[in-house]
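ASSEMBLY PREDICTION REQUEST
Request ID: AP-0331
Submitted by: J.K., bench scientist
Number of chains: two
Total residues: 558
Priority: normal
Notes: Please return the full assembly, not individual chains.
Input sequences:
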Amino acid sequence: MNQTDRANRRSSLFAWALALPMPIWQTLFFVAALLFLVVMSFWSVQNFRVTPDFTFDNWIKIYSAGYFRVTYVRTVLYALLAATLASLIAFPCAYGLAFKASPLMRRIVVASLIMPYFTSYLVRANSWKILLTDQGVINSVLGTVGLGPLPMTSNLFAVMIGYLTLILPIVILLQYFSLANVDRRLIEAAHNLRCGRVRTVFQVIIPSARTGLILAATFAFILSFGDFVSPSFLGNNKPPTLTVLMVDAVKSGSQWPRAAVVALTMVATLLLVAFLAMNFAYGEKRKRP
Amino acid sequence: MKADRIISLAFKAYIWLALLFVFAPILTSFVFSFDANKFAAIPWGGFSTKWYAEAFADPEIAKSLRNTVIVALSSSILATLIGFTAAYTDYRYDFFGKRVYLALAFIPPTIPVIILGVAMLVLLGRIGLSGQLHSVIIAHVVYSLPFAMALIRLRLSQMNKDLEAAAWNLGASQWRALKEIIIPFCLPAIFSALFLTKAVSFDEYAIAWFVSGFNETLPVRILILLQREVSPKVNAIGSLVFIVSMTLVMLAQIVFLMREPGSGKGKRI
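STATUS: Completed
Returned structure:
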């Protein structure tokens, strides 16, 4: 009895020692950081110093500011546009990967699409700047055939190029994974029933891959919504997005509480979007037989 | 059937075009890092390595590189260690609140890095841990730990559960079974996780930008250079950064797919 007791105690020591480091670390430095962000949003700034307080001032100031509301709507629209563009551009690619490419090509392409996420997004954005400026590579090429220069920086086009750099690979990958899981027998059945190629894509393949396609678009939205590099460096901060406002509030002043308000608004928006998208992705499937 | 082949070819061409879009910025940075001209344009100004020389001669870049190496090394070791313990817990135990447990690990990478940066700055600044290299290390562990955990968990799911139980039956303590069965089996994934978390930390600019204060890391230095002016030095550093991170990711992939040396079919666990 005594011996098993001791063994049990040692065993639970073992379990705790392995189970606890992660939750302790994440609670101390991640959960606490988010919670403190909530607390900070009620503090005030006095003589350029952040002071503990309990005031709704920051919330009221930010939410009643016209520029904040305009920027909020703009950021949402930008992210929506980016998610739509990425989904449309990615689909033929994912479709080709799932149904036309050889296994070797699939492996090479999938590996090449993962790789960019572990390289510097900053440097890639800088490269686009080189490619897109008035004296840049693309405009020089256009110039030799008598076109241009087309304005391709500091505008919506440049911002979208930046967003796509960030999101296109993951959208292709997620779409590909969902298309690869579509039951091939369904497609064959459709063909046997003389359903044309294009009709099969829209009436058989897209509906069965719907969850993954929505998931991909959601990821695209989330990543673009929270991106700072593209609107800042490729869009030149004009017009700003929420991330630009937030960085300004922190870096060029001690308006940390207001930055906290913007940050929390963004987190709430992302949670809402994720929730709606999941409902949309899984919800209607259940209704169908 | 001819139409089928043409369609198939068209799709493949489209895929390569998409890859070109993904890799164009990476190639651009390489090509223009060797361009003698200050302003990157066509025609190319001739081959030159002067931007590399300038980048290496810049004391601020050298300092930030040193900081990055320290941060990447420390945070990858910590993240892999903590990631391993969490992956093993997930593999072996079922308990109340396990979904919360897993969410705690995997939520940080889904939050935009800029927001994480602000949140970390606010917290670490308040408790007096901001503006130091260890602030960046702490934050990078939070952010990169799930990558390590996922890789090691994947490896553990390939393991035969009876093996560890057999070791216990033969009288090995839990610690000993962990040391002699689990860790050797996970070794490829552990190394792979080390490389991957290093790559994540090596390129992370946003959190580091907020919490590093004057102890900039290399990505933060790049960010500051980008904000200031057109500087071909960025292409030179960028190309080096690309090479380092790609090497790390490829090493992670190779090591992860490697079988343990000398394991024939019979010996495989």
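REVIEWER COMMENTS: Chain B touches chain A through 82 residues (CB under 8 Å).
SIGN-OFF: pending second reviewer
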